Amino acid sequence: MPGHRSITEAEKLAEAKLGGIPIRRDQMAAVANIYRAAAAVRQHLENSVLRGSDLTWTTFVVLWVVWVWGESESRHVAEEAGISKGTLTGVSRTLESRGLMRRAVHPSDGRRVLLSLTDEGEALMERLFPEFNAEETFVTAQLSDEECRRIAEGLRRVVLQVELHGEERRLALLDGAAPAPRRSGRRPRS
């Protein structure tokens, strides 16, 4: 199974498979390792510090965004958390049912929703975040403080590239067409 191979084995297999195909290998490795690192860290944090509080990565990120920014419109929370508004609706309802979040109608526009943490949600984040940060420290233990700063800066530049130029690139690649709608993965019945 792919999940049972080391990162070194996976890189060797990819190199063998790609052989003479003219690609930018360093860029491929950077993007592949961004994904691998994110998945490994997310899984570790969900299975360690978040599990005890019955939180997923997504519920934690939503709590974090509202904890840091304070009361916010749901559309801004979804954007900051990197999730769809539909996903946020489900997450915020779950957190509300657990007494961690409040959902309120915007005072000037009934179509908009404001999210804020309850006192219980605030207390959870104040207790949980130091534990979360201890695991952030654990997963970066093989890096110096300077290496952590350089990686963080490099990743900020990757995000900035996509934020500043991603839409323009998408339009060029698709000749200005809208992207095809997302599919569930199931094929239509014949």
Secondary-structure blueprint of this entry?
Blueprint: H1 7-18, H2 25-50, H3 57-69, E1 72-73, H4 74-81, H5 85-97, E2 101-105, E3 113-117, H6 119-139, H7 145-173
Antiparallel strand pairs: 1-3, 2-3
Describe the overall structure.
The protein is built from seven helices and three strands. Strand 2 and strand 3 (113-117) form a beta hairpin. The protein is mainly alpha-helical and 190 residues long. The model has no long low-confidence stretch (mean pLDDT 90). The protein has a three-stranded antiparallel sheet.
Q: What keywords describe this structure?
A:
about 190 residues, mainly alpha, Arc Repressor Mutant, subunit A, 2 domains, three-stranded antiparallel sheet, 7 helices, 3 strands, about 65% helix, about 5% strand
Computed CA radius of gyration, to the nearest angstrom: 20 Å
Which overall shape is indicated by the principal axes computed on the Cα atoms? globular
Distance between the termini: 32 Å
Q: In what range is the share of β-strand residues?
A: 5-15%
User: Structural class, from helix and strand content?
Assistant: mainly alpha
